Amino acid sequence: MTEVVNPFEMAQKQFDHVADMLDLDEEVRAYLRYPKKEFHVRIPVRMDNGELKIFDGFRVQHNDALGPNKGGLRFNQHETFDTVRALSMWMTWKCAVANIPLGGGKGGVVVDPTTLSVHEKERLLRNYCRLLWKDFGPRTDIPAPDMGTNAQMMCWFMDEYSQLSGQYTPGVVTGKPVGAGGSLGRNQATGFGVVVCIREAMKKLNLASKGMTASIQGFGNVAQFTAINFIEKLQGIVKCVSCWDRIDKTSYTFYKADGIDPHFLMEITDQYGMIDKKQASEKGYEVLSGDAWLSMDVDVLVPAALEGQITKDNVDKISSQVKIIAEAANGPTTTDADEIIKQKGYFIIPDFLCNAGGVTCSYFESVQNDANFYWSEEEVNGKLDEKMSVAFNSVYEMAKERKVYMRDAAYMVSIQRVVTAMKLRGWV
């Protein structure tokens, strides 16, 4: 029987475990185990055929001790309040571990975006903004693109908010298109940051990156740019990627023994991350089962899709050849599976450290919006490389000093920074 995972319970268990290690006060625990604010809205949308449909939408603001809430906005048919709660909590830790002055937030709308026309998406996004706009803002809560949303949709959100507030406010969202307040380098930032973390881990493990192999779950934005940067920056080989096939309602793994070409695969991938099986097969790709990525004999395993993908039911499929598990997705490993990974001695780069490149670059975008002065891509990438390297090494040094698992060390760094801010502000 497949393990059923509640992501919020998983996030709380991870927090509770480290809270015990840090001997946190009960009042501090009570504050941080749950979000500070939660919103559930019902969004009416007039569809193209004239029918009125109602969609459920969520926004959760976990903690803003370090700064305004920050986190993506998803359009996902399987979205739940608990998923959004968990992701908002992880965003708090992610911003803290990256040492940027932002807190944790997350949003979601329960909808399959592939069933909507462009105009229906715009109306749904703008109506979501209208219901909650007073609780968003550059100094309050700043959304960004996430699963099922994109830069154009952030531009619509920014435009709607600006009209409602009566002033042009580009900083209300990040991940906007370049030319409309967006930052150069933002599109590849999360994947770029994942590869910086892998590079730093290889240094600590005395591994030469050239010729190292990787298996990646997913082929959305994060997986695509992780693959590109792993090949181009580290001179590694990506053996496979996977994707969800919305037509067959299942997932597939696309494998090539001598390494995939991410640029080619991107050419035959639609806007929702589905790779064309026929065109891939014609170019010599083997189309395997959706879980084949997990059992590949590679050096680096990169879950870059959804939460709860590595469980106690499948964790034993991970090859003994794997040296690094780089969690590019949010919460891809359940707590039970995590214990097994820890016992087996795999080196793990925990999610909210590994994928912090996106929110770090979003912070850069906010800074540029405030200054009304924009940086070159080289400058953005240089600052991002430095931030991610420092973040990785702060966690690694904590793990070494306290003799703890990397995930625990990342939580220690993050929680201590948040609690310090809460105490200085007189909250606890």
TrEMBL record:
Stretches assigned to coiled coil: none
Active site: 106
Binding-site residues, substrate: 70, 94, 362
Entry's Gene Ontology molecular function annotations: glutamate dehydrogenase (NAD+) activity; nucleotide binding
Positions of the record's site feature: Important for catalysis: 146
Single GO BP term: L-glutamate catabolic process
Binding of NAD(+), residues: 190, 221
SUPFAM superfamilies membership: Aminoacid dehydrogenase-like, N-terminal domain, NAD(P)-binding Rossmann-fold domains
Keyword Oxidoreductase: yes
Keyword Endoplasmic reticulum: no
Cited SMART domains: ELFV_dehydrog
Residues of the Glutamate/phenylalanine/leucine/valine/L-tryptophan dehydrogenase C-terminal domain: 183-426
Entry superkingdom: Bacteria
Residues making up the signal peptide according to the UniProt record: none
Spans through the membrane: none
Keywords assigned by UniProt, alphabetized: NAD, Nucleotide-binding, Oxidoreductase
Protein family according to the UniProt entry: Belongs to the Glu/Leu/Phe/Val dehydrogenases family.
Protein name as it appears in the record: Glutamate dehydrogenase
